Every structure is written in C-alpha cells, then in structure tokens.
Amino acid sequence: MKRTRKFELYVAGVCIILGILLVGQVRTQEYIGKSQIPSRRLEDLSDMLRRSDAERMILEKEVEVLREQMSKVVEGEKTAETIRAELAKVRMVAGLTTTEGSGVVVTLNDSKRQAGPGESPELFLVHDNDILQVVNELFAAGAEAVSVNGQRMIATSEVRCSGPVISVNNVRIGPPYEIHAIGNPDALDSALHMRDGILDTLRAWGIEAKVQKLPAVQVPGYKGGLYFQYAKQVPEGAQK
Questions:
Q1: Of 110, 132, 135, 223, which has the fewest CB atoms closer than 10 Å, so is most exposed?
Q2: How confident is the model at residue 212 (pLDDT cuts 50, 70, 90)?
Q3: What is the pLDDT of residues 43-76, one digit of tens each?
Q4: Which distant-in-sequence residues (6+ apart) come within 8 Å of 213 by Cβ?
C-alpha cells in the first residue's frame, strides 16, 4: 500500500505542474493578444510558449505512463493479496497455524485399578495404539483439526510407544492425555461413544476416559520441521 501511495503522490505532483503550465500558457496567449509589445519581446514570448507546449506534451505523456504503472501496481497488490489469502488457507489445511472452533476435548488417564493375579499391569495403562484409535475415530467423524497434549496431528505425525511414555511428533508426552478436536461436537461425541467402540473398550479396563463438548476448542499449529527427501511434486498433466 505504501508503494501505491507514493505513485499517487507522484502523479498528483505531475498533474499540478501540468496545470500550472497550462494556466501560464493561457495567460501568455491572452497577454500577447491584448498587449502592444515590441517584436523582440514578442519573439521571446513565442519561444517561451513553444517551450511550454513541449514541456506540457512531455508531462502529459509522463502522466499517462505513471497512471499505467499505478494501475499495474494496484493490480499486482490485489494479486498479492489473493496469493496471501490462498497461502493462509493452505497453511491452515496443512495444520501449520493455530485454529479455533467448536469441538471436543478427550481426556485419557491410566487406570487406578490394581492388576490381579496373572494380569499384566500394562493392561491398565493408556498405550500409543489407544490414542491413535481415538484420533482416527475423531478424523473419521469429521474432525478438521486434532492435537494430542499440544502436538498437532498432520499427515506425517506419528504416535508410538517410547519406553514408559508416548511419543507424538518425536515429543515425549505422559498421562493424562488431552486430545483436542475441532468439528461438530455432537458428531464427534457420538463417534467416540459408539457401542463397543474405543471408549467402551478402554473403560472396561478402568482407563479414565472423559469427553467434553465445548463451543470453543483451540488446536495449536504444527511446530516441527517439514522435510521431503524422497517425495517430489508431479507437475499438472504429468500424472500417470
């Protein structure tokens, strides 16, 4: 916008100079017509008038050029604004920006039940596969953005066991696990509470599983790096 303002001021300045020259030219012609002046002086005024005509023509051409340039600048800024809007949309779809909207918050925590004889204590802990199933269920129900303990889930995200804790996006997290999801709260809640679904299975082992429907849920943007060593973009029209 600053560049456009500079062009506008420049065009205005040129127009003012052009107007001054035109007024001077008219007054000179009136003066020549009304006054009785020596021939030498008349020749000087005629030369001055010719120079004013020449300068006026140059300025008129310059005004035309500046107007064309200003038009291109304005058009370019509109194009740049469109590109910025499309880029912002792509970044949001890719999960690189913080987003907010209605949705649910799912909280999972290890069971407080003690393992009985012959039972493995591992059965009463939240595992990476449990979190992954909840995340997949949310996406299948139409979730537009999901995070696990502040880690945004994108196409390259991984959820895996890392010793006594769970790793998401190569960041180690521990219980309680908070899964934020943006989408239709009723649809997301219904998908999680399907009969014999993931939450029923977890609760059968005493795993604490709570779902809150909220009017405003915030999901942070992905903070990791994006590197593609093997995948390359295929130009349009070259797909097999």
A1: 223
A2: very high
A3: 666 677 677 777 777 777 777 777 777 777 777 7
A4: 103, 104, 185, 186, 188, 189
